[in-house]
């Protein structure tokens, strides 16, 4: 890959994450999703990554987006699957079918919450997991995405 070609990162936010800013602000904070996406797009540019953002409350739409990422040559996916983390074998299968490295992100520390949030259908197949860092976890995810694409291109 030439040095001025940005690697492609897709951010997927799952159900109810369109409500951050007003949803349980003691857990998820006061920043809205559009504000977060704007901040991350700026940060991605600094890291020479091209970020696209997608949010859906619908499991099948998230699966379709993961499939589409393959044909769009997305290099890394960052995903906060919301409650689908704890329920969705179908999203797990979607990741297994595209073979794109992905990072699982949770704003809250799910391990300090209800027991049903302790299990993830994705963590064991993720390239990494960022849990409980608040919205900064997404920025950390961008750094890790950069690290993944850099270490890959240094091997080619
Ligand atoms: C979440 C944690 C999930 O358990 C929950 O259902 C969410 C958000 C988080 O970012 O902390 O919707 O993924």
UniProtKB/TrEMBL annotation:
Pathway: Metabolic intermediate biosynthesis; chorismate biosynthesis; chorismate from D-erythrose 4-phosphate and phosphoenolpyruvate: step 3/7. It comes from the Bacteria. SUPFAM superfamilies: Type II 3-dehydroquinate dehydratase. It catalyses: 3-dehydroquinate = 3-dehydroshikimate + H2O. Belongs to the type-II 3-dehydroquinase family. Catalyzes a trans-dehydration via an enolate intermediate. This is 3-dehydroquinate dehydratase. The gene is aroQ.
